Amino acid sequence: MSNIVPATPEAVQQAARVLRRGGLVAFPTETVYGLGADAENPAAVLAMFAAKGRPADHPVIVHLASAALLDDFAATVSPAARTLASTFWPGPLTLVFQRGPRVSELVTGGLATVGLRVPSHPVANALLREFHGPIAAPSANRFGRVSATRPEHVARELSGSVELILDGGGCTVGLESTIVDVSTDRIAVLRPGAVTREQLAQALGQPVELAGVSSPRVSGSLPSHYAPRARVELVPRHEMAARARQLAAGGCPVAVLTPEPSQLQEPQIHVLRIPAAWPELAQSLYAVLRAVDEIPCDVALISLPEEHGLGAAIADRLRRAAGPRGNP
Ligand code: TXA
Ligand code: MG
């Protein structure tokens, strides 16, 4: 059984010992919980892929204790990449570099590039310092499902395959890190997150493009990802009530996710209030999507935020939650 323990200094030391002998630990970061393995232990990395149910050709982010370690793991670091690292690390930003010799192909899913991140969460940081090495960590959820932002979510998804879950409470950001490709001259955002395109552009002094759904191997870029079991439908705000009544009249239990007070009273319609402010919405979004599955309902209706700043990251995850299902 999984073991949720408060992230005391002793528990962090214990987690580092588990990592050292090739075990898996879940730990909080400011974005979402990570499922950590020793990035330099092939057996541990394979166990992590198996626990997640993740195909072997999907690359995993390598977490580092400090930006000073960058040159140990990246083959080349451009001045722009260095600017981004020094501006946003530690923090919710992953930078994709040409892979240095210390990074195994197992971790990068056979790619020539590696995603590196220095998290700002004190527990993640303490674990990285205590472990003295790189920690490979995808989000601590089953492949294709909603990321975990609380320790109980991790336990529900990965019970049995993770030795220790460090409890650091709820994640403050709530959405996975922004991923920026700095491996070529064309800097591009591969996954929007709490470090916004506007902030990146300001740091670099030039606009930063948003890559299209380019590589099928970037799992976060697959159409259906971060999805609850219920079907998610994106509905403009002014059509919400009518669409909910239409579905309910057809015998379909429906959840309406809205920041506004709702007049909907029908027994088939469950209204879930969500925060209006983006930081709070991002923080609670995955917990809300999990709650939808517990109502239970067949369809969840939600409106997209405007796509700038953090709204772009929230809209990205909602689109994926609403994306076509099937083979993730
Ligand atoms: O916030 C986060 O990034 C969390 C915490 C735990 O750090 N981690 C996370 O990992 O979201 P994961 O594995 O669930 O998503 C990482 C994404 C995947 O879509 C993966 O394909 C992409 O990063 N990725 C990793 N290495 C890459 C690379 N070399 N090139 C392109 N994409 C990469
Ligand atoms: Mg993930």
Description of the molecule:
- The protein has 328 residues and is an alpha/beta fold.
- Helix content is 31%, strand content 18%.
- It is built from ten helices and 15 strands.
- Strands 1-8-2-3-7-4-6-5-9-10-11 form an eleven-stranded mixed beta sheet, sandwiched between helices.
- Helix 1 packs across helix 5 and helix 9 runs parallel beside helix 10.
- The longest helix has 17 residues.
- The radius of gyration is 20 Å and the shape is globular.
- The two termini are 27 Å apart.
- The mean pLDDT is 93.
- The site of threonylcarbamoyladenylate has 26 residues, from strand 5 and strand 6.
- The site of magnesium ion has 3 residues, from loops.
Give a quick rundown of the structure.
By secondary structure, the protein is of the alpha/beta class.
Index terms:
328 residues; alpha/beta; four-stranded parallel beta sheet; 15 strands; binds threonylcarbamoyladenylate; binds magnesium ion
Structural class: alpha/beta
Oligomeric form of this entry?
single chain
Low-confidence stretches: none
**So how many helices?**
10
Bound molecules: threonylcarbamoyladenylate, magnesium ion
In helices, the fraction of residues equals 25-40%
**String of helices and strands:** EHEEHEHHEEHEHEEEHEEHEEHEH
User: What is the end-to-end distance?
Assistant: 27 Å
How many whole angstroms does the radius of gyration measure? 20 Å
Number of strands: 15
Give the mean pLDDT. Answer: 93
Shape: globular
Main sheet: which strands, in order across?
1-8-2-3-7-4-6-5-9-10-11
- Biggest sheet overview: 11 strands, mixed
Determine the strand fraction and express it as a percent band.
15-25%
